[in-house]
Amino acid sequence: MTTQPYNKVLMAALLLAGSFITILNQTLMITAIPPIMEEMNVSANSAQWLTTVFMLVNGIMIPVSAFLIERFTTRQLFLSAMGIFAVGTVLGGIAPNFPSLLIGRVVQSAGAGVMLPLMQTVFLMIFPVNKRGTAMGYIGLVISFAPAIGPALSGWITEDYSWRFLFWLVLPLALSIMVLAHFILRNVTELSYPKVDPISIILSSVGFGGLLYGFTLAGNQGWASTDTITVLFIGCITLTIFILRQLRMRHPMLEFRVFKYPVFAITTIIAMITFLGLIGAETLIPLYMQNMREFSAFESGLALLPGAVITAFMSPITGRIFDKIGARLLATVGLTIITGASLAFSFLDIETTFTSITVLYAIRMFGLSMVMMPVTTAGLNQLPKKLIPHGAAMSNTMRMVAASVGTAILVTVMTTTAQNAESNSAIAHPDIHGVNIAFFVVTAISLVGIFLAFFVRRTYPPDEQEEKQSEEEVQKAE
């Protein structure tokens, strides 16, 4: 750990900027897919991999990040991650054909996957417990705002410029951040230099990668597809072997014992439920608007934008509130708002206006800003410092899994319900009915989150807990 003086605000701003441009790239290609299909002569299924592969490699890299954070210094890891991301950006920008473009996205994602767990770990190291809510609130701003502006930004750019400009726009930002990091960033993470365990890395990659890819296949091909069943089976078996191996190891690559801490376990489930609903809504609303109501991709991106702006504005505020009152009340109120808005989305019809969709989504995101980072911070606050990298990696991994599972389940519910409704003459628009039932499922899952929120209590790391108790004893004695 560093003994050099450092500026917390500058370090935090740098990490936020780096994470913002890497997370932005998760959704930046969505509305650029049609012109890429035309230029490179590929099908929609193939082109969709530009987004899918980014999420997939992200999901593989996040569990490995706990090992990397303990093995390399903050500066080494940040500069390497941003460097890899920049190389991927160049490869994407100059790609002469589709396979080259896909390789560029894989390389980009390999660098991006480390950034979020690294940022969370550093924030929890440099800020005291009573300021962590505010600090993590800014992370919430990045997590919610960056992916939400991706579709609208890429829609605007691809209308007036080439899709390649999406890469050339990001590259100078990435290089500038690397230069600034050289002067600003200090080493703050605690290094334990764990031994490289190639078997654990392979098992983690195949296990988490197989699970995420399996759920993606389930959403596209259905749960009964041979490919879906095979990939999910391989993913589950490999992941089970990986978990058993980690529990037997003295210095595991990813520490599953973080779930022994009850508040961390409960808040991780709540974060999964919330993120599942977020990704579910971001999938269902564009499908409804574009496929069933003939809005453009740009318009559907625009409908989601005010919600993202509200979350970006509210996240730092809810972070400050968390520092004063804890996560329980925030999470309960926020999940109640999410549940109410999800229920309202269960009554979409052929005449629902653009304004109604935008306002409802904005209300839903207002609720989400009260839940996501407060519960994540409450869970991580219970962990001792040495387990924070593992907690951050585990929390992010579980959110990725929840997003994949949620998308697959909701798309299946939507399509199956729509197919069944086609034979019912009383239902005028089977496709819209499918979306409504999918939102009803989101509502039911959110209700479970409200119940769990009552069990969230204010926590302190074991070492800080002891200090707090001794301070209280001194005050009583006085």
N-to-C order of helices and strands: HHHHHHHHHHHHHHHHHH
Top CATH class of the largest domain:
Mainly Alpha
Q: What level of helicity do the residues show? A: over 70%
Number of helices: 18
CATH-assigned fold name of the largest domain = Growth Hormone, Chain: A
| Cα-based radius of gyration, to the nearest Å | 22 Å
User: What is the level-2 CATH architecture name of the largest domain?
Assistant: Up-down Bundle
Average pLDDT confidence is 87
| Secondary structural class | mainly alpha
Q: What number of domains?
A: 3
Q: How much β-strand is present in the residues? A: under 5%
Low-confidence stretches: none
State the fourth-level CATH superfamily of the largest domain: MFS general substrate transporter like domains
| Main sheet properties | none
User: In whole angstroms, how far apart are the ends?
Assistant: 36 Å
Shape: globular
Total strand count, please?
A: 0
What does this structure look like?
This protein has helices at 8-24, 33-40, 44-47, 49-71, 74-94, 98-126, 132-160, 165-184, 198-221, 226-248, 262-292, 297-325, 328-344, 354-369, 372-381, 388-421, 430-453, 462-477. By secondary structure, the protein is an all-alpha fold. It folds into three domains: 1-192, MFS general substrate transporter like domains (Growth Hormone, Chain: A), CATH 1.20.1250; 195-252; 258-460, Growth Hormone, Chain: A. Helix 4 packs parallel to helix 6, helix 7 crosses helix 15 and helix 11 (262-292) runs antiparallel to helix 15 (372-381). It starts with 7 loop residues before the first helix and ends with a helix.
